[in-house]
Every structure is written in C-alpha cells, then in structure tokens.
Specification:
With 78 residues, the protein is mainly alpha-helical. It has three helices and no strands.
C-alpha cells in the first residue's frame, strides 16, 4: 500500500475514534468537550490538507471539474 494511502486510512481511524470520544463526552464538562473538539478539528484539517496534497493531484487529470468544485467548496481553489 502506498504510504499516502496508509496515512489517510490512519487518519480515518483517528477521526472516527475522536468522533466516538466526542459523542461519549457530550455530558461531560465544557472544557473536556472543547478539548476533544479541538483535537477532532485539528485531525480533520490535517486530513483535508493531506487529501489536497496527495489525492487531488492524482485525480485532477481525469476529473478536473470535480476537484475544482471540491476546492471551491473548501475555499482553497487556486
């Protein structure tokens, strides 16, 4: 498996785990919820960045309109 794919799969697992952790903490104090939310947000942003760096270039030749649309939705179109 390509290292980029492995990295993205690990990201998915980490994000899934943080989502479960956040769901379980919804009755916790505000500081706990905020800490988990910030970790989830950082993980998501890092994952989106990795997709843009590694995956989008691979798909842009065959699917330029879709990639442009995704970048516009994220506000990162160049």
């Amino acid at each position: 498996m390509h290292p980029a794919c492995r990295h993205l799969e690990e990201d998915h697992a980490r994000i899934d785990q943080l989502s479960v952790e956040l769901d379980g903490a919804l009755s916790a104090d505000r500081a706990t919820i905020q800490e988990i939310w910030m970790r989830l947000e950082r993980a998501l942003l890092a994952h989106f960045d990795a997709e843009e760096r590694w995956l989008f270039p691979l798909f842009s030749a065959d699917h330029p309109e879709e990639i442009t649309e995704m970048l516009l939705e994220e506000g990162t179109a160049h």
